[in-house]
Amino acid sequence: MLHERLAMSDWSVLRLPGRPGKHTITLAFALLFIVCAPADLLLLRRGQDEAAWGVMIVGMVCAIAVAYAAIGVEARRYARMLEAERLHAEAFQYASTSIWVEDWSEVGRTIFELRREGADPYARILNDADLVHRLYESVRILDVNDATVALLGAANRPALVGRLKDVVPASAHTFDAWLMALTRGDHTFRAESRVRHCDGTVRDCLVTASLPQEEAGFSRLLVSILDVTDYKADQARLARAERDAAKVSRLLTVGILTASIAHEVNNPLAATITNAEAALRWLDRRDPDTGEAVAAIEGAVAAARRARDVVDRTRRLVTRSTLDTQPLDVHATLDAAVALVARDLGEAHVDLGVAVAPGTARVQADPVRIQQVLINLLQNAIRAMRPGAGPRRIMLQASPHAEGVCIAVRDNGVGMAPEMRDRLFEPFSTTRPDGMGMGLAVCKACVETHGGRLWVEDTSSEPGTAVLFTLPKADQG
């Protein structure tokens, strides 16, 4: 391999098996040349001119041989250096990953000057908007490879050389993140970004770079950009397939449960009807037999109670009878729910903001159930967004309330009709053609089990929907 050959001695590479190495021969010529010089002088003093001339000729031959060997060594070293540069250029040029060579010298000089002054570069730079702007304008793109030209759809490589702010205007959104990593002294930078092709399409990309630790390294920063659009699309399709499979499984479970309930309840209902009809017949006779009528009615009551018991057992089967409540930090609870719907937010291109008002207390709640309520409400808000509309935004807010803590999920989606709001929390009531109409009913039951309320707030003055619910405060102490 090339790096192994470069690590070996110049002559050992050319040494032939079973023969003296060239470095040995060269050493012999050098020693012979050293010996020839004093020998020639000695022979001249003794007057042996012919012998002196012969020794001088031998010395000259040795000198020429040594010089030739030295030139050969340097020539081979130079050839190997050119080969290494050629391989490096080919690796850069023909790599399938987009590679950028960028000059961040001004950024590096500023960071190291602040460190030499004993200042904190992280605090000084990021708190000075003018300095950040000046540093951003100083970054230059020195070179890119062909993969970069293809990624951006540029005309050629020179079209992508110049100031970073001119070539990639969107880089202003991520420059602060770069500065934070560099001023902290991070060894690597890794972030997701979106790159716009010249035809207007947007590609999802993973940006990585090995960050310099010395000031000199800032003059040549290598940045790699990997197009992960297709990969993320495959992952999204897989996630959708998993969700569809889970939905089918839930539907099958509901179907089985419904069939089971119908089977269990059908007999007592049939008995109730039979007894009721018998009681009517006993009472409808010319001489009503009240005794038989009472017995029939008692049978109907007993059958109805059996049906009620079946429903109660089923309810206890599918819902936990007790809550595992504990004091929960509201902000952490909201963040955990947001993390679980992050993929859905990204696929729908929805921005989500989280705001917890000062003074909001901890809540006493079952973390699993409350997390499911939040996920359900957030997913409903995501699905309510207008396709192809302007900015899509959801606000997840928490604030103190007379009943404890109020949590609100507000979206700027399509909203809902007033008549729909009245029966929104009824089972099997839905505004979506593919919805089951159970999510909000389950959310309402879950919140009420905690002692809270869930309702829809009137947003007729602005588009969208706001769903709010309350939870009790945790005991202080």
What's the topology here?
Blueprint: H1 2-7, H2 10-14, H3 22-45, H4 49-93, E1 98-103, H5 105-116, H6 121-126, H7 129-138, E2 140-144, H8 146-152, E3 162-163, H9 164-167, H10 175-184, E4 188-196, E5 202-210, E6 221-227, H11 229-284, H12 290-318, E7 326-328, H13 330-340, H14 342-348, E8 351-356, E9 363-365, H15 367-383, E10 393-401, E11 404-411, H16 418-422, H17 439-449, E12 454-457, E13 465-471
Helix pairs in contact: 3-4, 11-12, 13-15, 15-17
Structural features, described:
By secondary structure, the protein is of the alpha+beta class. It folds into 4 domains: 2-93; 98-227, PAS domain (Beta-Lactamase, 2-Layer Sandwich); 244-318; 326-471, Heat Shock Protein 90, CATH 3.30.565. The protein has 17 helices and 13 strands. It has helices at 2-7, 10-14, 22-45, 49-93, 105-116, 121-126, 129-138, 146-152, 164-167, 175-184, 229-284, 290-318, 330-340, 342-348, 367-383, 418-422, 439-449; strands at residues 98-103, 140-144, 162-163, 188-196, 202-210, 221-227, 326-328, 351-356, 363-365, 393-401, 404-411, 454-457, 465-471. A hairpin with a 7-residue loop joins β12 and β13 (465-471). α11 (229-284) runs antiparallel to α12 (290-318) and α15 packs antiparallel against α17 (439-449). The protein is elongated.
